[in-house]
Design goal:
Distance between the termini: 51 Å
Largest sheet: 4 strands, antiparallel
Shape: extended
Structural class: alpha+beta
CATH class of the domain at 26-89: Alpha Beta
Number of helices: 1
Strand order of the largest sheet: 1-2-3-4
Strand content: 35-45%
Helix content: 10-25%
Number of strands: 4
CATH architecture of the domain at 26-89: Roll
Radius of gyration: 20 Å
Order of helices and strands: EEEEH
Length: 98
């Protein structure tokens, strides 16, 4: 290995294996809804780094999260509106059709 090369774990994270405590979070508001077999939880939170929206998808106990900084919420709202309009304007294809 050349001295200026760095070796990172196979997962690509530098600090892999080093636990970092999560900063304290305050929940400002949380809403939950279900679509088919998925449960979605939207939580507006705040920590020392700022406000953010955490979107959690729970499917059979498996949870995935997306974090959006509060500065991006207006952009998110606009993009969701664009997707809703596209859904309304585009006929749905039946399952199995190409």
């Amino acid at each position: 290995m050349i001295s200026h090369e760095r070796r990172y774990p196979s997962n690509g994270f530098r600090n892999s294996g080093v636990p970092h405590p999560a900063p304290p979070e305050e929940t400002i508001r949380s809403e939950k809804f279900q679509v088919e077999r998925k449960v979605f939880i939207l939580s507006l939170k705040e920590n020392p780094r700022g406000r953010f929206l955490r979107i959690t998808e729970d499917v059979g106990g498996r949870r995935d999260h997306v974090i959006i900084p509060a500065t991006g919420l207006e952009d998110l709202r606009r993009m969701v509106e664009v997707m809703i309009e596209a859904d309304r304007e585009t006929p749905a294809k039946l399952a199995g059709e190409e």
